[in-house]
Amino acid sequence: MISLKNIDSLSDDNLEELGFSWHTDSDTTKYINNQLVNVTQDEAEAYYEAGNEIYDMFVEAAEYVIENDLFFELGIPFNLIEMIKKSWENDVHWHIYGRFDLAGGLDGEPIKLIEFNADTPTALFETALLQWALLKENSMNEDKQFNNVYDAIKENFKRLITLDEDTELFNERYDGWKILFSSVEGDNEEEATTRLLQQMATDAGFNTSFEYLNNVRFDEEGVFDADENQYEYWFKLYPWEDIGSSEPELATTLNSIMQNQKAIILNPAYTLLFQSKGIMKIMYDLFVDSPYLLQTSFEPLDGVKQVEKTVFGREGANTKIIDANGKVLEQTDGEYGNYKKVYQEYVEFNKDSDGAKYQAGLFFAYESCGLSFRKGSEILNNMSKFVGHVIK
């Protein structure tokens, strides 16, 4: 059973002053939990080490997928394959940030990978900013958390220029290149997240602008905002798989832009390999002895409790929990049912005294850099709650 600390909540007015408008769920309950998860220093260090090792396994598995042409197995749209290969071959296509979803890690339970939100992860605003505000509001030492997300991503933006070298070299190598940040108009959470990333890049030293996705112009010569300013980098908070399946003309144009070296797209196309839950089957085959991996297959597992997921999907949609005899215990509907399925060994999440379950979210930007939690029931969905943490 995990340990929790009761805290005073931030008021809606205070949250909105911070730019956080999605504080109340559709059932009128508060999205930000009024408790913190107590985490020991040893547990925080274990999460840090796990994230670094897991990322290395994703990299090796992605290389294996590319070398063996396993894109179909991962459900990758065919019109994105060339962009994935192109971005993988050249280090200038730098992965800015992602978020691991993990079970365990508390109360002696082993850390297990659930999936990797590598392309368009949510909960960035909450993890990077609100956790600090929660500790400050409750007169607690703001440094008593595993949370360097803001600075880690800022430094990772610098690596677009310095690559794997010292980021202090940024100023002498930067030549005025601009980044355009885009999200879909009308989604407050995605816009706030995108603008936060824009601020991180600005703090890193880049020239930046924001433009809603529908106002961005693309052609073979590059990426342009509504005022016809051209950009060397384009960051989109819009999933690659949606570009491939729902925006085929945009996919074709982006491919031309990449081939002509007119712009670099962030997060890179290869992050779709990480995003596909199918890669965890490849990882399990390659690293069967890893303590962090659950048995995963493209076919139902024999004789074990398991979770059926779609290779692409969000907020727990189109998920089934199946017992060892094949009986469906719980399931959710959703819009991702046409995607290929994967089957992952079931693992319990950490629980509190009321039986609520907690999934750890571990942000990664060059290295593991920040921890937070989602609280919910058996299948975590868009009604789950954000829970901060404190190192006790």
TrEMBL record:
<dbReference type="Pfam" id="PF03738">
    <property type="entry name" value="GSP_synth"/>
</dbReference>
<keyword id="KW-0547">Nucleotide-binding</keyword>
<dbReference type="GO" id="GO:0005524">
    <property type="term" value="F:ATP binding"/>
</dbReference>
<keyword id="KW-0460">Magnesium</keyword>
<dbReference type="InterPro" id="IPR005494">
    <property type="entry name" value="GSPS_pre-ATP-grasp-like_dom"/>
</dbReference>
<feature type="domain" description="Glutathionylspermidine synthase pre-ATP-grasp-like">
    <location>
        <begin position="13"/>
        <end position="391"/>
    </location>
</feature>
<keyword id="KW-0436">Ligase</keyword>
<dbReference type="InterPro" id="IPR016185">
    <property type="entry name" value="PreATP-grasp_dom_sf"/>
</dbReference>
<protein>
    <submittedName>
        <fullName>Glutathionylspermidine synthase</fullName>
    </submittedName>
</protein>
<dbReference type="GO" id="GO:0046872">
    <property type="term" value="F:metal ion binding"/>
</dbReference>
<dbReference type="GO" id="GO:0016874">
    <property type="term" value="F:ligase activity"/>
</dbReference>
<keyword id="KW-0479">Metal-binding</keyword>
<keyword id="KW-0067">ATP-binding</keyword>
